[in-house]
């Protein structure tokens, strides 16, 4: 392959005790050791047909690939379908994609303990072998069917673009012609897979999205488009401070609003149920709620950051440190002159274009959800706890999402849970659509955690790190899941860094404080701050040593051995393509950064200048090593989108608290990158024959340090906090 450019219990039902044990075990992972997955308990038996759960072939020879991952704009459906089509030798123009139902037994993610979940940049990674085998098995069935019908050897039968042929006799037939015979063939186990050198579809620009037409014409169906007979709409009043809960409410004015049907308290607030979104919103505005704030977060962001700095500096013992990585003898490792740096990172909102929403129908312990479920298994578990059933019995019709960036997948299923609780109150299977406004979404929490890093480095006589001390303070992104108190995601990107592999003495510790402010994974999770801390520190060390940043990294990657091998290859291609070493455009400087996340190594060079006193990235050159590139055009698109998303946060993104209340409520206060501010992006893919790795997230965390390093070169001043543009 050449180098490529380019998310009210009624009736009997199961006993609460037994159900609670099973559902609780699912949430903690404890039941995963039994002989069968607990996710399947209550699941209806499915007939997938002759070709299994991922492939359906029609009489006209068209192929439908069932996508177990949610489509939320990233285009994973095309890459997944291409894997099947490649091994099946199907006609790509006759391949379509359909969303799988909620069914972790057949559609579980092999990299998330069997849960059906889209996240962690795992869609292609975890499906690669699975879908190749499915496609190859189906192809073998058609070959055997043709060989039997024509009385020839299977080795002499070929398949191309959905046509099965025997060259010697001149006979050929389409998939549709052979369908009945192929369905009777027992598929080989395991099937014979292609040599990647023989791929004709994978790795080409032919692999493009299948949903562009629907999205361009408005035909795509999102949750907000769902209209069902007799459907009600609900909106919820949430507390102004995290951790508060309803103490009481006066619904008299709300009930007087035309169209309002009911007002009900739920654990997270008070819901207004109406016949329309307008009526629900007007009813909510008329509702009067008092709050119990005994356990609410009342600090401002500055106070929280001050507490974090005290932890990192050893001035506070409120939170016990977690050892992340250690090596060498610390006794005198930091004696003498050292280089120190501290970094502050704000809370960040996901700010997906489609706010949170859900449609639920509850009749006794029967429940159906229709929405953009990014983590169907988690949503099934939480629904089961509310209505009194087993997870597998919860039906979910999974719709595409208008963005997510991690927001729609959370252990508590917060907004879906609200919808289910309201629909349970309504009862009778009557559909209820929960609608969150932009303000609900922006102030509703589940933020990228606010974080603080403190780094101290002792340089050796050669100018390279001899000892590295690192303290990280950040809330957990996995509250409600096992390991939250030692959340590895908070230090992911520091731990295992090739820079630390090249440093003799290492002392990395993390503090995971708790707060009522709810946090969650955000596109690239811990790497959103760890990449910045590592890469911006490296540039400062290179400057201190009087060395070129690329040369400095090159030497450290070589010192790191195997841990730096892929980084070194990315660096070399990046320097070549970005013109590193050549003069930048007038008034600009170049900054580079390289980081590994989700199994992929991404390097970026940003050309940065100032416009009206604000930093502006004009050009970004990106190099990615993501293993076999299934869909080069889509990889380039994900790099472009990830860079713009990360640049938006680096320049402007911040959620701040004032006495515990969120100050930003919409895009007027939460500024995002505009089209005229977006840089030109060039993407280059490192040729590879290795298993595919992540693409959706790894492009995001690299741009902030690349820009900061360019500003360091331009101004001589390091960046100690984000965003770069202060409100």
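Q: What amino acid sequence fits the structure above?
A:
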């Amino acid at each position: 392959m050449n180098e490529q450019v380019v998310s009210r219990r009624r009736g009997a039902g199961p006993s609460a005790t037994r159900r609670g044990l099973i559902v609780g075990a699912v949430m903690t992972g404890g039941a995963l050791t039994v002989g069968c997955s607990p996710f399947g308990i209550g699941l209806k038996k499915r007939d997938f047909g002759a070709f299994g759960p991922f492939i359906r072939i029609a009489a006209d020879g068209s192929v439908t690939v069932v996508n177990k991952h949610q489509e939320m704009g990233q285009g994973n459906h095309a890459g997944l379908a291409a894997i099947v089509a490649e091994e099946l030798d199907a006609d790509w123009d006759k391949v379509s994609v359909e969303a799988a139902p909620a069914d972790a037994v057949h559609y579980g993610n092999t990299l998330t303990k069997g849960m059906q979940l889209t996240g962690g940049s795992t869609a292609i990674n975890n499906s690669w072998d699975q879908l190749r085998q499915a496609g190859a098995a189906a192809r073998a069935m058609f070959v055997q069917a043709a060989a039997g019908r024509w009385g020839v050897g299977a080795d002499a039968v070929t398949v191309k673009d959905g046509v099965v042929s025997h060259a010697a006799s001149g006979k050929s037939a389409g998939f549709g012609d052979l369908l009945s015979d192929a369905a009777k063939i027992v598929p080989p186990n395991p099937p014979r897979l292609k040599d990647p050198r023989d791929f004709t579809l994978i790795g080409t620009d032919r692999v493009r999205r299948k949903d562009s037409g629907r999205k361009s014409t408005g035909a795509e169906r999102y949750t907000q488009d769902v209209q069902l007979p007799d459907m009600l709409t609900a909106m919820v009043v949430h507390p102004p401070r995290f951790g508060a809960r309803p103490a009481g409410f006066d619904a008299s004015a709300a009930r007087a609003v035309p169209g309002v049907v009911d007002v009900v308290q739920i654990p997270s607030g008070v819901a207004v149920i109406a016949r329309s979104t307008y009526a629900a919103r007007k009813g909510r505005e008329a509702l009067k709620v008092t709050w119990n704030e005994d356990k609410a977060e009342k600090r401002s962001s500055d106070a929280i950051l001050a507490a974090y700095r005290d932890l990192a500096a050893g001035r506070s013992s409120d939170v016990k440190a977690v050892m992340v990585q250690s090596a060498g003898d610390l006794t005198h490792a930091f004696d003498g002159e050292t280089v120190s740096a501290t970094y502050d990172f704000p809370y960040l909102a996901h700010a997906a274009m489609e706010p949170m929403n859900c449609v639920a129908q509850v009749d006794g312990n029967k429940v159906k959800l229709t929405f953009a479920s990014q983590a169907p298994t988690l949503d099934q578990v939480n629904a089961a706890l509310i209505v009194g059933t087993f997870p597998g019995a919860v039906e979910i019709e999974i719709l595409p999402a208008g963005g997510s960036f991690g927001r729609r997948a959370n252990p508590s299923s917060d907004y879906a849970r609200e919808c289910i609780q309201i629909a349970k109150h309504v009862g009778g299977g009557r559909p209820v659509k929960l609608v969150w406004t932009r303000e609900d979404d922006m102030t509703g929490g589940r933020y990228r955690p606010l974080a603080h890093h403190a780094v101290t480095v002792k340089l050796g006589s050669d100018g390279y790190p001899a000892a590295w001390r690192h303290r990280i303070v950040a809330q957990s992104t996995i509250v409600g899941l096992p390991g939250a108190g030692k959340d590895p995601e908070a230090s992911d990107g520091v731990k295992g860094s090739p820079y630390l592999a090249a440093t003799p003495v290492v002392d990395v510790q993390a503090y995971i404080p708790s707060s009522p402010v709810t946090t969650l994974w955000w596109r690239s999770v811990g790497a959103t701050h760890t990449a910045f801390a590592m890469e911006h520190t490296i540039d400062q060390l290179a400057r201190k040593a009087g060395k070129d940043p690329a040369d400095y990294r090159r030497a450290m990657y070589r010192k790191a051995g195997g841990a730096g091998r892929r980084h070194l290859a990315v660096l070399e291609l990046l320097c070549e393509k970005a013109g590193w070493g050549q003069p930048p455009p007038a008034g600009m400087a170049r900054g580079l950064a390289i980081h590994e996340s989700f199994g992929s190594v991404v390097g970026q060079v940003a050309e940065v200048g100032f416009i009206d006193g604000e930093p502006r990235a004009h050009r970004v050159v990106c190099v990615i090593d993501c293993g076999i590139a299934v869909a080069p055009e889509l990889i380039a698109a994900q790099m472009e989108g990830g860079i713009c998303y990360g640049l938006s946060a680096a320049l402007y993104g911040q959620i701040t608290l004032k006495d515990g209340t969120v100050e930003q409520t919409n895009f007027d206060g939460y500024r995002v990158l505009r089209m005229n501010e977006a840089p030109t992006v060039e993407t280059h893919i490192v040729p590879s024959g290795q298993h595919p790795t992540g693409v959706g997230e790894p492009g995001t965390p690299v741009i902030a340090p690349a820009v900061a390093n360019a500003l360091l070169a331009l101004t001589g001043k390091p960046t100690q906090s984000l965003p770069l543009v202060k409100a």
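Q: And what stands out in the fold?
A: Confidence is low (pLDDT under 50) at residues 1-35.
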